[in-house]
Amino acid sequence: MDAPATGPGEVPEDPFALHNSASAVLDGHGRVVGWSERAQELLGYPPDEVLGRTALESLSDPRDHEAVRAAAAACERDRGWSGVLPVMHRSGRRVEVGLRVRAVIRDGPAREWFLVAAPAKEVLQWETDRSVLDGLFRRSPIGLSVHAPDLRILRINRALARYTQLSAAEIRSRTIGDFLIGPDLKTIESRLRRVLETGAPLIFTEQPCRLRSDPDHERVVSVSAFRMEDPSGGILGVTQQVEDVTDRYRARRRLALLNRASARIGTTLDLGRTTRELADVAVPDLADAVSVDLLESVARGDESAEEASGPVRRMAVHSVMAEALGVMYPAGEVFHFDPRTPQARCLAEQQPILEAELRSSPGWYFQDPERTRRAFELNAHSLIVVPLTARGLLLGLLSLWRAERPEPFEEDDLTLAEEFAARAAVCIDNARRYTQQHQAAVTLQRSLLPQELPEYSAVEVAHLYLPADAATGVGGDWFDVIPLSGARVALVVGEVVGHGLHAAATMGRLRTAVHTLAGLDYAPDEVLSHLDDLVSRLAAEQAPGDGRTRAGQIVGATCLYAVYDPISRRCTLARAGHLPPALVAPDGTVSLPDLPEGPPLGLGGLPFESAELELAEGSLLALYTDGLVEARGFDLDEEIERLRGALTGPGRSLEETCTAVQNALLPDHPPDDVALLLARTRVLAPEHVAFWELAAEPAAAGRARHLTETTLTGWGLGELAFTAELVVSELVTNAYRYGGGTPVTLRLIRDRSLICEVSDSSSTAPHLRRARTTDEGGRGLFLVAQLTERWGARYTRRGKTVWTEFPLATATEGHSAAVADRALDGTARQPPT
User: Fold this and answer.
1) Which phi-psi region, left, alpha or beta, contains residue 588 (left: φ > 0; alpha: ψ -120 to 50)?
2) CA distance between the termini of the chain
3) Using an 8 Å Cβ cutoff, are 561 and 574 in contact?
4) Dihedral sign, Cα of residue 170, residue 171, residue 175, residue 180
5) Got the DSSP string for 93-106?
6) Which one of 42, 392, 491, 726 has the lowest number of neighbouring Cβ atoms within 10 Å?
7) What's the pLDDT at 447?
């Protein structure tokens, strides 16, 4: 008979069960005296063909007689036998059957043998299944437990019994709650009940597991479970397989934490944010509370120059417990670690420190006794301190605490903390380097661009500056407002080709040159001519000797230079390859003045021209670089129209107008540098200006003194009269002597300072020198320099003007006389030359 078919995974029935097996009875001589129907089905012999015959003759092949006799001898000796023997089927084929032979005891010496047989294939499968079942409960390293429908324990294997400190027999009829605690118990019970209710198996589900016998040690187990049913579908209970995967879980968690650290730390180059990201990654996956401290020099962006015991700055704190933040120093605090603390030892030795049990550590200390007491009240019981080092540089340290989580830190936790602290340290060092470079760039920017524009009598100004290179904060565009003599002011906007520090450095050189040229009172077209020469020289300096173009080479620049006079209301402008300014009249009309378009700076050899405009009081000049109107890549004419609209707004301040222009024309991150300078013109009142033409005669100096004294008295500046008379007298005398006999003009201007100007038709430059003690003259300009705050000369087509400025101080007339006396006395003491 063939073995009964079974489905995949089905357990076959016991082949030796009475309802399923073939049976026979042999007498003491080996004759068949009993034969079952299942025996006939298995071997094909009807009862009348085998009863009374010996089994050896009728059922076995002669080739197998030795094996049969050996089995019979074993039966006699052991009162029974089991094994596999070949038996002859009635059809003549050999059939392997499994046999179990047991002696039947009767009265008297007669003996019979009861045989139970089944196909060998079924017997071997059944034996294998029995061996597997035995292995699961006796030798398997994976825990196995069988539960009744009410979840009482029916049986567990030896692997699971090891965790209970009880034998398998002692555990029977107990509940899961006798061994697990807290939410872990509720989790596993709810899952097993769901399996019982639905029949859906539970497959490799991980969960935390705390044993009552070891509550401070958290394990992670993988649980699989299935519902047990009888052949009729009745529920017998649930079986679960439990595997301790704590090591695997921790390794996976460490890897995940490192991956998160790589992804979340260093997303920016901001030092503060980088340290906060480090703290956020560590809590709560590794620690309950964390602090990040950097050496104060590192926090400033400098190299670590202080000793390890130097002050540290608390950069970030994070905790799952709000109370812990009251014990720890807050972010931003600068302090020294007490030498008794683990943190001080970590900084000094630059080695990680693990304090697994703080209460058992005799040397543990938390800055001061009060903080130590409060830390213990919060159950702080374990600590890791890791130095933050990168590229051989000590940056600071990372402190990790456990309080709510009961298990202490272990060596694996220390290794993990070191790994992601090392990664974080590189990010922190990158942020430190960026901070250092950014501070250098900001310092450069502050040195290159005006930060706070002073008040000017000639104009009211506001500005907007947006570099394309946000990392450095500087670019090649610039603007400037430069005070000139005679209460005038120069308005400048320029642009160097390129971006970043290289362009900014060249821009700084050009801006310095503009200041120098403005101080010499050159006309706008002359200023641009000199700048053109300078840019050509800079380009030649940067060109490499082999003729190849160097990366970032400055090949040109543009500039718009304007000079506004608040007395005449005239504005003289010249441009070198730059866009013309926008002019807003007091009535709101916007125009683009038609200015001669000069070539960009650096081409060399081409002339520049100036244009002169007369501006009404309250006119608004908008000087800008092309980044303002080309930022979004639209048509230039459309952007100019948009600029016109943004400049005209009723009742707005200049700062509000700058904001309106930015919102109308610029994206969030302009691709090019942008500079915008707004200047609203003012007019100096006529009563603050006095002008006279003096004949070229010896009495001119005396008349000039009289006019000066009378005018200053009328202006309420009588305390300056004596000093001003001396200066005016010297300047008029020089103009009379060297002016070629033409009339001399004297102009007094009352502005933020008192300005005295003397003009003549001569182009001879005034020269300041030191007179010898025996010289009768030569001290005039020296007196002028000593008595005034500033002085200088500017040249026009009709000659020159020597000007001086006096501060409008609250000095008394006696004080001014004393200043003059000291100046005169000083000239007498000049050493001979």
Assistant:
1) left
2) 141
3) yes
4) positive
5) -EEEEEEEEEEEE-
6) 392
7) 66
- Return the half-sphere exposure (C-beta side, CA atoms, 13 A cut-off) of residue 570: 6
Ranges of the chain whose pLDDT falls below 70: 1-14, 16-19, 303-309, 361-365, 441-452, 469-474, 500, 542-555, 631-633, 767-780, 809-833
d(CA 18, CA 226): 30
How far is residue 579's CA from residue 142's CA, in Å, rounded to a whole number? 82
Give the Cα separation of 225 and 207 in Å (integer): 14
Q: Rounded to whole angstroms, how far apart are CA atoms 484 and 518?
A: 7
Contact between residue 532 and residue 504 where contact means Cβ atoms under 8 Å apart:
no
Give the global pTM.
Answer: 0.57
Using only C-alpha atoms, the chain has a radius of gyration, in whole angstroms, of 52
Give the Cα separation of 471 and 269 in Å (integer): 9
Helix (H) or strand (E) holding 734: helix 721-738
Provide the token pair at 236.
């017998």
- CB contact at 8 A, 156 and 173: no
Residue given tokens 């597991």 in the structure block: 209
Rounded-to-integer distance, Cα 100 and Cα 40, Å: 17
Half-sphere exposure of 705 (CA within 13 A, CB side): 12
Q: Sign of dihedral through CA atoms 663, 669, 670, 674?
A: positive
What are the residues whose beta carbons fall under 8 Å from the beta carbon of 675, sequence distance 6 or more? Answer: 463, 464, 465, 477, 478, 479, 493, 495, 624, 625, 627, 628
Instruction: Give the amino acid at 125.
Output: Q
pLDDT of residue 404: 87
């995949």: which residue's tokens?
A: 8
What pLDDT was estimated at residue 309? 67
Report the candidate in 530, 456, 463, 539 with the shortest Cα–Cα distance to residue 496.
539
Distance of alpha carbon 414 from alpha carbon 384, whole angstroms: 7
| CB 375, CB 327: distance < 8 Å | yes
Write out the H or E segment, with its range, that includes residue 499. Answer: strand 489-499
**Orientation of helix 246-264 relative to helix 411-448, angle to 10°:** 0
Residue 329: which residues within 8 A CB-CB, separation 6 or more? 291, 314, 317, 335
